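Lab notes, practical 5.
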Amino acid sequence: VHSWNRRELYVNAEIDPSELSSDTFQTITAALEKAQDTDRINIFPGEYIESLDISSLDDIELVGQGEAKQIILRNVGREPGIKVVAKTRFRLANVTVEATPPDEKTKINAVDIMQGTRCLVEDCILSCDGGAGLFVHGEEDDVATRVVARSTHFSRSNWGVRVNDKAEMNIDGCTFTICREAGIQAEDGAQVIIENNKLFEN
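Output from the prediction step:
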């Protein structure tokens, strides 16, 4: 998931508009619209109310500049906080993603990974009221979805991590608290390696 020659873009919700430039933005969405394959988007502390679709980019990174609790992404409406729907590579680090559905009947997830994506999630905080912190969907056209979650805190969700049929996942050094249905749920046919995790109040 790593490229030696990444272009760097920057997002700062609190930046003065006069300081915006070709590589500095107020929203993550604006940065993604200008991003190219292999770019790294550096996100400064602040609250970002937007839902992100990473599907059109390959080998992209979203990296918080600071502690995850300082960089908060909150979803909009019926969309998950982050959706990745493509045979792409993606890294998410040092970011909090909180998803809240608009009503009790709507089921969404904080982060949705599907359709052959290769993804690394590390040092994040993921929570979703009514869905999963991280939902890993199965294969598309015989290409398995493969996800690694490392040193991430899953909290206040129905499921911390939910892994669907034919998806592959490694969960290492993560913490799960107050996940009402299960901290980790692997459907029949999922391949999940679980190491060095802690579960509380699940």
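Observations recorded by the TA: The radius of gyration is 16 Å. The chain has a mean pLDDT of 91.
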